[in-house]
Amino acid sequence: MPGNGEAVTRRNRTRSTEARSGEGPASVLPRGVVILFAVACGAAVANVYFSQPLLVTMGHDLAMSPALVGSVVTLTHVGYGLGLFFLVPLGDVADRRRLIVAQLLLLVGALAVVAAAHTAAMLLAGMAATGLLAVVTQTLVAFAASLAPPAGRGRVVGLVTSGVVTGILLARTASGLIADLGGWRSVYLASASLTALLALILYRVLPRHSDAPPTTLRYRQLLRSTITLFAREQLLRLRALFGLLIFAAFSTLWSSVALPLSEAPYFLPHSAIGALGLVGVAGALAATAAGRLNDRGLSRRTTGIALALLAASWLPLAFTRSSLWALVVGVILLDLAVQAVHVTNQTLIYTLHPDAGSRLIGGNMVFYSIGSATGAIAATALYTVAGWGAVCVLGAAFSCLGLALWAFTRHGTADPAARVAPRSEA
């Protein structure tokens, strides 16, 4: 009997033939495969955030200065940003199945280096490589979008993206719990084992013989074309700005919320603060719903409502010092809004040029990284100077700027989702 990979390959070939000929509807990507994509995305991206609750322990173990310990997070994110631009576009010229499996196996090696590190230099090199290779997450998103039928692409991207945000939110909680049981090195050993298992499963399940790569560009031309796409496509530039602003707001909250919770009147332990990520996972519910709305051609309206919720979320968040319930409400609203805009962005930009999906998604995510870094640096610095209230004003400013951008541009950019959706917005 044929294996799972061959079965998915046949479905993909049939879908491609039908899409070219217009003879009948494209088959639906099996839900189990979509969930596998989501799990793999979450597991990969979590490696970027595992270190945050472990920095003090790492520093003591390897006799690192506070400044050197802080560079662990910085190098990981720098590696991730470089990978978005230099590695993710390869999905448009290489067999994505082989590329994904290769990156996962290399990621296993990087995680093993981190777990075995006995010097600061070895740790920093391993963390930089981990960030660089964790961008396999975005290659998986692009691959899932390419396998999905156009009319259901939003639903697929929504479900896969829910795995990304869940991985980000639960990474700190998981690393803290595992480190308490077996030390900080056990976190990276466990992740390496899970990553190796996922590489084996994806090797067996993903299509073994996909269609020829959509472009024959050389590597340098490939990178240049990523910049050209941004210069040419107004919608891509707009959605990149939305991504920058929502992740600036997202990072403003999650990079600084531990500060007021560890002080009076709460004095919460790190484990309790990390558990707040479980509340944020509720936002993952927005991903599939937003994807379905995009499939109906309601992307513009979904974006506007989500940005309004993002701005409103900072009102309850401002009362964090007096009410944990207000914090919970604010976290849920913020994560719902960020998820909805993110899924809408991913769905729309892929529709612009499906043959350049990896370049579009990788280039777009560079702006997310810029927004995330901006929010983190500004929020922590502002908290030291002016306190939690000022941090909430900063987050609200990012959010309101995004809402204003939507209001000024909502009638000026065509919605590519309307090309495939059964219903389009006026």
Describe the protein's architecture and organization.
The chain crosses the membrane at residues 28-50, 62-87, 99-117, 123-144, 156-175, 187-206, 240-261, 267-290, 302-319, 325-344, 365-382, 388-409. This protein is 75% helix and 0% strand. With 426 residues, it is an all-alpha fold. The chain has 2 domains: 1-213, MFS general substrate transporter like domains (Growth Hormone, Chain: A, Up-down Bundle), CATH 1.20.1250.20; 219-426, MFS general substrate transporter like domains (Growth Hormone, Chain: A, Up-down Bundle). The longest helix has 30 residues, at 153-182. 51% of the residues are buried. Residues 1-26 and 418-426 have low confidence and may be disordered.
What is the fold's blueprint, element by element?
Layout: H1 4-21, H2 31-46, H3 55-61, H4 66-86, H5 96-116, H6 120-133, H7 136-147, H8 153-182, H9 184-205, H10 219-232, H11 234-254, H12 258-261, H13 270-274, H14 276-280, H15 285-295, H16 299-317, H17 324-352, H18 357-386, H19 388-409
Helix pairs in contact: 2-7, 2-8, 2-9, 3-4, 4-6, 4-18, 5-6, 5-7, 5-9, 7-8, 7-18, 8-9, 8-15, 8-17, 11-17, 11-18, 11-19, 15-17, 16-17, 16-19, 17-18, 18-19
